[in-house]
Amino acid sequence: MIKGVLGALVPLLAALVAFAFGAMMLVTLGASPLAGLDAMLDGAFGSSSRIAATAVKATPLILVGAGITIAFRTSVINIGGEGQIIAGALLSTVVALSFPNLPAFILVPLVLLSGAVGGGILGAVPGALKAYASVNEILSTIMLNLVMVQFMNFLLRGPLIDPFELEAGTRIPQTQRLSDNATLPTLLDGTRLHIGVPVAICAAVGAYLILWRTPTGFRLRAVGYSPEAARAAGISVKRNITLAMTLSGSLGGIAGAILVFGSEGQRMVTDGSAAGFTGSAGFNGIVAALFGGLHPLWTIPSAMLFGALLTGATQLQRVLQVPAALAVALNGIIVIFVISSTPVRGWLQRSLANSGMFNRSSDTAGMD
Amino acid sequence: MKRQWRLGPAVLVILGALALVGTACGDDDAPASGSGEGGALRVAIVAPSASDDLAFSQSMVDAVHAIERDVELSVTDGTFIIEDAAAAIRGYAEDGNDVVIAHGTQFGASLIEIAPAFPDVTFMWGTASDTQGLANVFAYHPAADEGGYVNGSIAAALTKTGVIGVVGPIEAGDAVAYINGFKAGALAGGASEVNVTYTGSFGDVALAAEAAEAHLANDVDVLTGTAQMVVGAVGVAADAGVPWFGTQANQTSLAPSLVVASQVYHWEVVLEEMLTLRDSGVLGGQAFEVNLANGGLVIEFNDAYELPAGVRDAADAMIEGITNGTVSTG
Amino acid sequence: MGEFFTLSVLVATAASAIRLATPYLLASLGETVGQRSGVLNLGVDGVMLLSAFFSYWTVLETGNLWLAVLVGLVVGLVMGFLYGVITVFLNATQGISGIGIFIFGLGLSDLLFRQLVGTPKPVRRLPNVDIPLLSDIPHLGEALFQRNLLTYLAFLLVPVTALLLTRTTFGLNIRSVGDNPQAADSLGVSVERTRFVAILIGNSMAGLAGAALVLQLGIFQPNLTQGLGFIAVALVYFGAWRPIGVMGGALLYGFVNATVLQWKALGIIPVSGSDLANMAPAVLTILALIVVARRVHAPSALTKPFTRH
Q1: Which helix (H) or strand (E) element contains residue B46?
Q2: Which residues of A touch B27 (CB under 8 A)?
Q3: Is the peptide bond before B127 cis (omega within 30 degrees of 0)?
């Protein structure tokens, strides 16, 4: 029991230490740490619309994170989230531009599905390259991220550009306003909570079910645990690696579609960079997944927490007028501290057990 | 791996605790009251790059500081993530700012949703030439081609090889206008070649530097460029002794002996007009242009750079010409 | 196209390629050492940004370029110490702690720049140093031997790193700890200490890479690296964990970028094709790897924290 309490306490302490660092930084910038904390909490949870915004911010993180759990559990490292998000967004945008008049109850699932397909393709490529050509996936996914950014710029400045921009000569790299039938329906009036949020949660649940309740998932995990043993058992390592990357990518692709069709502007816009569109969800999703112990269900609260950090940080910046970079640095510190705290917890638990202080037989029985 | 499974519940606990505290001490949804203490105008700027980047974002911050009103200014800069910028714009509107300046072309799409939700707030959006039919949105853009044309013609007067180089980010927005104007002015002024390279990024300084080097390898002896990554190119120009023309802000400090002139955006000229309209009850719906004629665009010469005889006079005449319409920027 | 194949243009392109490749090479070599010992560091970009900022600031305040290089190295060392503690002694998950360092470095360097400098001010750039005799070789000399000292250092470190890994006891320790830490441990090699030192080396080189980047440019900006550190990590895989392969990757990347820029300047690549051309370095890197497909042997313990059983 003590270990259970410790289990939750140590990361909490780590987060607090990280916040203490943040407080120091705020003080040197001439801002009040308490006001900062208040701003962050207010920004993340201060009202129903803010909580909705936090959930919306967390949505791509849940999806990418769930995808990461599938990939990592198959021992494939997918750093291609950014590119997969973009690919999904582009394909879903093309679909919406091609079929604007389909009724919403068909078009909305259709765009989400096309997002999955787009992202899936961008996951399948590095997956197949790894499986069949021994091209390391870290390399191919990083490279494909770069390719997709340029491809997005090309499409949004060229074939997909808003015709109005061409007439006006302003050349803003954005599409025209996409069909209203594709707008993700809002769930709660007065907030921006849209169906993307439950879709993401269902996807995470789905990832869990696939991994632990289907033969496919079993094979994926087997490959992840030991490719040689899997091969000996007749499981195709190559096919499963490709499958893992495809599934991982498709979840990122859905995130891309949600980013477009849940956006304020109902268009796909680029500023030339990847993060301008994705908000670095491709990387933050990895953090969320790992915070969740690579378990799709735990990825959900992890992503929410990260989303809260992000929305809270923007409020902090706005209210205290500190540079946004402070929030970025703070996020980094929190990640470092929390992830460093897990082994500390294990060490702490072990030394407590060894010290004989809490010597009850039931405690030692559950020891890690 | 097993160790980390326990992190999950910890996260849940942290999340729950924060959410409870957050909702408890959160302010309610009612927006704060309008004008600040003493009637100061509350203005907020949301900009995509740093507010002291000697380029786009800086130009607007400088402009707000330059207007002759009592202003309480809040700035969110470096928001290149478009959704975050939308959240910031909305947040500033909720906070009760009178004016929210969405200083980024890519932020416009979000205004369609946000502006109608805050009918008492004036939104200013640039660079753009269309208000998208929104009653409380003003649009502003620079006739960057005009200053580009002037810079180009001076460049043509300075070049000995006849070849001039341009380093641009992406072919969009005011970058295109400036570069096209520059090219037209240079060619009309007698340059034989104007080579344009779009590096593909607004931020990649190293790439901009090498793009400048590539130009230099092709006999280029005058350079210009636009966007915040251009500081890399200026460095290369400075080391090679090649004159530089700037835009968006006064870039003399980047190469005090080699910057010839900069087309500086003085948005305050149109900001004043927009605010006057707002005072009279018109919160938006009009588009504004800063150009040489209304003083929104100013060619600021570097006094430390000695222009050959007659070039300065020719430039001034050119500015006159554009102002009264006798010269066309093509 | 004919204009591209004039000697002076080719030489300039080669020089540009080598300049571009320098930071990639330094960072990538460092990451190679770390990865050979079984440690993946995804935070290279963050380390580079911090060392770049501090190097820049040193030149701004003191005007001394070599002090700035030293500062860059020290910043890398300090970050390496931090990463070493997190990874080796706390056994934290490497991928995520690396990303944490990246985010932290990105934010802190930005923040420090805003607070301490503000408007970008240009500083002295690394001067080109002609290598006597060699730089007089027509054309080739100009391209290869009229570069700055950090570039020479980067390329010198290729054989040095290779020798370190293959011919020294320490190098043997690194490789054994990366391939089979249990066996190494039972043979008396301190896994923790070896990995810690490897991480220090790796991050110091990332620090040098950041210094090289900023001192070649003579100016700093938030997010100066634009993802360079991640590409450097990718190049380690491209080079199959061998310094010479990593050098090949860095040069490939530099050459493609330099050529694209030159073709754009010459008009060979029209403005409309600009975006597609920008994909070239990434696409060619993947293609190169497919073409040169070989059975690659990754350090078996890469990313796995070591616990004594």
Answers
A1: strand B41-46
A2: 42, 46-47
A3: yes
pLDDT tens for C99-122 read 889 999 999 999 999 889 988 888
Rg (CA), chain C: 20
Does A171 contact B15 at a Cβ distance shorter than 8 Å? no
**ipTM of predicted complex:** 0.90
Given a contact cutoff of 8 angstroms between Cβ atoms, the answer to whether C126 and C148 are in contact is: yes
Q: How far apart are CA B61 and CA B267, in angstroms?
A: 9
Are the Cβ atoms of B217 and C118 closer than 8 angstroms?
Answer: no
Q: Given strand B99-103, what is the order of strands in its sheet?
A: B71-76, B41-46, B99-103, B122-126, B137-142, B287-290
A285 pLDDT higher than 50: yes
First to last CA, chain C: 63
Residue-wise DSSP of A282-293: HHHHHHHHHHTT
Residues 6+ apart with CB under 8 A from C292: none
Closest CA to B312 of B150, B182, B193: B150
Q: Nearest CB to C226: which of B165, B204, B254?
A: B204
How far apart are alpha carbons A123 and A144 in whole angstroms? 10
C3/B253 touch (CB, cutoff 8 Å), yes or no: no
Q: Between A363 and A341, name the one with better pLDDT.
A: A341
Residues 259-318 in B contacting C (C-alpha not used; CB under 8 Å): none
Helix/strand/coil for B74: strand
CA distances from residue A72 to A219, A223, A341, B28, B102 in whole angstroms, order as listed: 13, 11, 21, 42, 40
The 10s digit of each residue's pLDDT in A89-103 is 999 999 999 998 888
| pLDDT computed for residue A356 by the predictor | 53
Distance from CA of C37 to the nearest CA of B (A): 20
Q: How confident is the model at residue A363 (pLDDT cuts 50, 70, 90)?
A: very low
A104's CB contacts (< 8 A; 6+ apart) are A180, A181, A182, A183, A185
Tell me which of C217, C253, C263, C272 to substitute to probe the interface with B (most B C-beta atoms closer than 10 Å): C217
Show Cβ contacts of residue C51 under 8 Å, excluding neighbours closer than 6 positions: C71, C72, C73, C75, C76, C79, C206, C207, C208, C209, C210, C211
* Pairwise CB contact (< 8 Å): C261 & B50: no
Q: Do C96 and A328 touch (CB under 8 A)?
A: no
pLDDT under 70: residue ranges of chain B: 1-10, 24-38, 330
Half-sphere exposure of C105 (CA within 13 A, CB side): 36
Helix (H) or strand (E) holding C25: helix C7-36
B301: left (phi over 0), alpha (psi -120 to 50) or beta: beta
Q: What is the pTM of this model?
A: 0.89
Contact C16, B213 (CB under 8 A): yes
A301: tokens are 């609260």
If 0-12 CB within 10 Å is exposed, 13-18 middle and 19+ buried, where does residue B285 land? middle
A340 compared with A209, residue with greater pLDDT:
A209
Kind and range of the H or E run holding A47: none
How do residues C195-243 score in pLDDT, each as one tens digit? 999 999 999 999 999 999 999 999 998 889 988 999 999 999 888 899 9
Q: Chain centroid to CA C20: how far?
A: 11
CA B296 from centroid of its chain's CA atoms: 13
Q: Is A286's CB within 8 Å of C95's CB?
A: yes
Cβ density class B64-84: b for 16+ within 10 Å, e for less: beebeeebebbbbbbbbbbbb
Closest to C200 (Cα-Cα) out of C176, C226, C170: C170
Specify the DSSP class assigned to residue B45: E
pLDDT, one tens digit per residue, over A204-244 is: 999 999 999 999 999 999 998 888 889 898 889 999 999 99
Nearest to A295 by CA among C87, B7, C90: B7
Nearest to A271 among B13, B19, B80 (CB): B80
